[in-house]
From TrEMBL:
Keywords: Membrane, Transmembrane, Transmembrane helix. Coiled coil: none annotated. Residues 47-67 are annotated as: Disordered. This is CbtA family protein. It comes from the Bacteria.
Length: 264
């Protein structure tokens, strides 16, 4: 199996994952965004009540301004959301395919399908789940616009540490497997990753700009964001694993037929 095969399979898996993520985000995520925008608009209207001479509800007034914006809220929640999830899905799927090709034969005696599934799992944990636990998603109206650059830099920094940590964990697990086969090697690798991200979590600063934002809305928003991430990675892992396994079995069958024909 060539690297190109893994890449093509990964891109296809990523495309389907982007569709799945869009469905989840639009179904369970967008209602939470609308609730957050309504709260933001209500607060903004209250602050500028005397300037805007507002006589109707702040949420309705701000909602109207969203509709009149260059990019309407409807476009953001449909075309914009779909474009974003498809782009991210394709990129993550392609990268997972390439890393699966690199990992083939380097993750013990795992067959291509199992090796690919493991790569996808490690990618989900290191790139999305663990960074989400440190810096979870925040809805509109949360956080200062003046700190968005620093908050984004912190998130990317922690993602980098997490990904490097999982690469180091794989290296530790491989070395440990030469001395202790089976479970001890896996435990050693997992422990190495936990140590790396735990130390990083202590050194990276906390971000607390929630103010008086309602806890229930924040919880629902973060749960929907996490579900979207999990849906994307689940589809990438499942589809890529199935495609790789099918291709590998076909190539094995073809090789067996050629070997049999050579004996005739």
């Amino acid at each position: 199996m060539t690297t190109r095969t893994f890449l093509v399979h990964g891109l296809l898996a990523g495309l389907l994952a982007g569709v799945a993520a869009f469905v989840v985000a639009y179904t369970v995520g967008e209602p939470q965004v609308d609730r957050a925008i309504a709260l933001e608009s209500a607060g903004a209207t209250a602050d500028h009540h005397h300037e805007d001479d507002v006589t109707t509800s702040g949420a309705a007034s701000h909602s109207h301004s969203h509709d009149d914006a260059a990019i309407s809220r409807t476009t953001q929640s449909t075309l914009g959301l779909a474009t974003g999830t498809l782009a991210i899905g394709i990129v993550l799927g392609g990268l997972t395919g390439l890393l699966s090709a690199v990992g083939l034969g380097r993750l013990g005696s795992l067959r291509p399908a199992a090796s690919t599934a493991l790569v996808a799992l490690l990618g989900a944990v290191s790139f999305s789940v663990v960074p989400f636990l440190k810096y979870p998603a925040t809805p509109p109206a949360v956080g200062s616009g003046e700190t968005i650059d620093s908050r984004t830099a912190l998130w990317f920094g922690f993602v980098a540490v997490s990904v490097l940590g999982v690469l180091a964990a794989v290296a530790v697990a491989r070395r440990a497997a030469h001395r202790w086969s089976g479970v001890p090697g896996i435990v050693a690798g997992a422990a190495a990753y936990v140590v790396v991200v735990a130390v990083a979590a202590l050194f990276f600063p906390e971000v607390d700009e929630l103010g008086g934002f309602p806890a229930s809305v924040l919880w629902d928003f973060r749960i929907s964001s996490l579900l979207t991430l999990l849906a994307m990675w689940a589809v990438i892992g499942a589809v890529l694993t199935v495609l790789v396994d099918r291709t590998w079995r076909r190539q094995e069958a073809a090789a067996a037929q050629r070997a049999f024909a050579a004996t005739l």
